[in-house]
Design a protein that fits this description.
Structural class: mainly alpha
Order of helices and strands: HHHHHHHHHHEEEH
Radius of gyration: 20 Å
Number of helices: 11
Strand content: 5-15%
Largest sheet: 3 strands, mixed
Shape: globular
Helix content: over 70%
Length: about 325
């Protein structure tokens, strides 16, 4: 069995495993990586970009090295290689947990229990829930579903297709480091700079693929393309902008505006300003769009790997 077929079957098995099983309740590999990264930060922290870059190199490089070592260990066995790819894919993608959290908040809002929705929102994003009403919570959920479709699913599939198991683990490591130290807090403004910039680079291809597929899979393809072209560049994040704008256009809703993070107010540009405001029912629509995008991303990345492998072989043959 060729390497491309092993990757295709393993990635599909991993995404299916995430759909059926979700994340493990205990002992999640990403949580274990987070604890290790926190220990490295405790040992290395200085209010300096160089020390932060070292932290990023140690943690992300360690994840890639671990993936490479495991792949080398099973190289001679197609069955073991397929199983490793499947387990690694299942471990790093988080589409089911994303959908579960979004739907949990949506059910609370549908029942009129805004306080329960506020209590649950921190499981999904870093917004200040006390500053949000029901529609504000719904908008935060839809925006988080859009952004995390790229971060938690599509980006991992892209780097898995490019780099196999090392690519899968490396992407999740970079994304996790950005969540841990890449924010603009006083402690991490300089120390987390390298993690934030590396996450921007690693997330670039997955974000664009997510935006393309949202345009294809959404209810309003033309609206999705229009919102992406006109509004994505207004967003402060180079990767969240295309994803959120295309989701907003695909769903026919308006995203962005004033946000609150731990008491810090941000005034972000409105995305798809011609759309209506987000309501509770849009949470389920966003989750369904996320699912469609995820499975289309699997097909696109597998096809891209196969095509890239054939082109490379032809180039070598020449």
């Amino acid at each position: 069995m060729g390497a491309d077929r092993i990757h295709a079957y393993g990635a599909a098995a991993g995404l299916l495993g995430d759909l059926l099983l979700g994340d493990p309740r205990r002992g999640h590999p990403v949580a274990a990586f987070g604890r290790a990264a926190a220990a490295v930060e405790k040992a290395l922290w200085r209010d300096h970009r160089g020390w932060g870059a070292l932290h990023t190199a140690v943690c992300a490089g360690g994840a890639v090295a671990l993936g490479a070592a495991m792949s080398a260990g099973v190289r001679r066995s197609p069955a073991a290689s397929l199983a490793l790819t499947g387990v690694a894919t299942w471990a790093v993608v988080g589409g089911t947990s994303l959908a579960r959290e979004a739907r949990h908040i949506g059910r609370a809002l549908e029942a009129g229990d805004v306080e329960a929705a506020r209590d649950r929102l921190p499981h999904l994003c870093g917004r200040d829930p006390q500053a949000l009403d029901a529609d504000g919570i719904a908008r935060a959920v839809v925006e988080s579903v859009a952004e995390n479709t790229s971060d938690a699913v599509v980006g991992a599939l892209v780097w898995g297709a490019v780099g196999g198991v090392p690519g899968l683990l490396g992407f999740r490591a970079v994304n996790t480091l950005d969540a841990m130290v890449g924010h603009r807090s006083p402690r991490h403004l300089r120390y987390g700079w390298a993690s934030a910039r590396l996450d921007d680079v690693a997330g670039w291809p997955g974000a664009r693929l997510t935006a393309v597929l949202a345009c294809v899979a959404g209810d309003d393809p033309r609206g999705a393309v229009r919102a992406w072209r006109t509004d994505a560049v207004k967003h402060p994040s180079p990767n969240a902008g295309p994803v959120e704008a295309s989701f907003a256009g695909a769903l026919g809703v308006r995203m962005g505006g004033t946000l609150s993070y731990a008491g810090r107010i941000e005034h972000r540009p409105v995305l798809n300003g011609g759309g209506r405001g987000v309501v509770v029912g849009d949470i389920e629509r966003a989750v369904r769009l996320s699912r469609r995008v995820s499975w289309l991303a699997l097909g696109a990345t597998v096809a891209g790997r196969v095509l890239g492998g054939r082109l490379l072989k032809k180039g070598v043959g020449v």
